[in-house]
Amino acid sequence: MPDARRGLLFGVAAYAMWGLFPLYWPLLEPAGAFEILAHRVLWSCITMFVLMLLLRRGPQLRAIWRDRRVRLLLTVAAFVISVNWATYIWGVNNGRVVETSLGYFINPLVTVLMGVVILHERLRPLQWVAMGIATTAVIVLTLDYGRLPYVALVLAFTFGSYGLCKKTANVGATDSLTYETAVIAPFALAYVGWLGATGGSNFANHGLGHSLLFMTTGIITAIPLICFGAAATRVPMVTLGLLQYLAPILQFALGVLWFHEDMPVGRWAGFVLVWIALVIFTVEAVNHRRRQLRLAVEATTAA
């Protein structure tokens, strides 16, 4: 199989698994979002350390520890992704799967907005149009929900912040996730211990199968990440950028068709506006990249 096709399959697998997560988290109930998060962190930490040993990436992990700037960035990333994970699990297990999908639909636009505010990047005209339509969509959805779609906004801004930290740190996905889970693991262990001591733990109270499901949270976290890493080295960034919409599309479909969440006219209108903004944003980004590549080829030829 050609390397590019293999990369495409890895990418589809990664985003499909992320998109199907809403089917997984309810299986861990009656545990609450924070207990599920704590177990996800602990079992992910164990899984990632085993993976690091198998891949012999100890030197890369030590390099993170020695670099104070990278260490600080990944520590911030660890706390931000913890908020993201907790919000997502809570949203899925509280009947807000559609709203969680909105968070990941608008994430690319939020990431661009953060680039403008934090990195002082400049938007191109069509990017401004997309941002304006997305803002209108948030207003429409706020009126429909009777409140800000805070689950979606928290997911979008935390994941955007996480991406910014990771981009600035410039560390491999496996190495960084290992460090991030190790940073949060003591807090997660303390919380799980407290639940056990106070009789509030659900880990061993609902049968062996339920306990084993808790233990798979590490593998469930690691496998899509490994597939994503394999895809990132084999397919163009434009392809990877388009694939990222697969996860929220699946989440949205599950919310509407599987969980039968309400979708009144106002909510449909808000989502349609978001999709229009994403089409404009994506087409503009693809065309801009093609222009840049064409100019680079012409400059090379002229030289």
From TrEMBL:
Localization per Swiss-Prot or TrEMBL: Cell membrane
Pfam families membership: EamA (PF00892)
Bilayer topology term: Multi-pass membrane protein
NCBIfam families attached to this UniProt entry: rarD
Transmembrane annotation, as ranges: 7-25, 37-58, 70-90, 102-119, 126-143, 149-165, 177-197, 209-231, 238-259, 265-286
Protein name: EamA family transporter RarD
Transmembrane helix in keyword set: yes
UniProt-listed SUPFAM superfamilies: Multidrug resistance efflux transporter EmrE (SSF103481)
Primary location class: membrane
UniProt entry tagged with the keyword Cell cycle: no
Keywords: Cell membrane, Membrane, Transmembrane, Transmembrane helix, Transport
Gene from which the chain derives: rarD
Domain EamA: 6-142
Family: Belongs to the EamA transporter family.
PANTHER family found in the cross-reference section: ACYL-MALONYL CONDENSING ENZYME-RELATED (PTHR22911), SOLUTE CARRIER FAMILY 35 MEMBER G2-RELATED (PTHR22911:SF137)
Regions annotated as coiled coil: none
